[in-house]
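Recall that a protein's primary structure is simply its ordered list of amino acids. Everything else, from secondary elements to tertiary packing, is in principle encoded there. The following example makes that idea concrete.
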Amino acid sequence: MRVRIVFGLSNKGATVPFHHQFLLANVINTQLDKYKGEFQGFDLYNFSGLKGQTKVGKEGLHFYSNKVTLVFSSTNTHLIDCVIKALFKQQQVEIGKLLLIPLSVEKEIVPVITSEMKYICLSPLVLLHPNEGQAEAKQFINPTSDEFSDILYDNTMSRMEKSGQFTTEQIAGFYKFQIVPDKDYLGKIRDEEKKFARIFPAFDRSNKYEVRGYTLPFTLYADPEVQEFIFNCGLGVYTNKGFGMMDLANSDPNNRTTPMELPLD
């Protein structure tokens, strides 16, 4: 299930770092810690960066909209309810220099999932975990290469198997998996001398690492159950730290939500 948590912004013009997933991860972990270890070790959740009207400045992203939105997703609806309840018990949530007031929650309508889905990245997609080597985690891997798809395939199958939601036979049947980046986008980025792959900070047990994240549109060819897992749990590594959240390309997000009542205590 995917929800959008809507906040009011009480100090327009305030900033967060350009990449602020680690700040959001701290806030979410703090909310989960209130449930006394109930979710310890569970990592099948994912979230976007903050969305709103922004301008880039020296200090980071300046937010100027009245409302700011966070997309949060998990296969565990109870976890989603717990995060929402914990956030809405607070009069104000501070992320970077933003002072946010929880206002409402919207539930995303489940899209039609097929074996061919085109995605955009709501947060950077990370291929390699720093535990595999700090240098390796920062290396550039061409997204048009088989290696790019193979790494993400192995990681996704490992996560799906670890989830306990799929049998060994089902995992073995999910052999179709190919990522095809949008060539027009890559060409445009190259022509404009911009970057779609950057080094980002990531934190694990208070240790700071650097990882390479990719932000690009692509088409994924895979079994619909694999697509659904990725849509709800993210793609790549560090998804529970806000990396690898996907959304549908060429889709109006405003037409894909319905109001959601706040969960009761």
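The chain is about 30% helix and 30% strand. Residues 17 and 58 are 9 Å apart (CA to CA).
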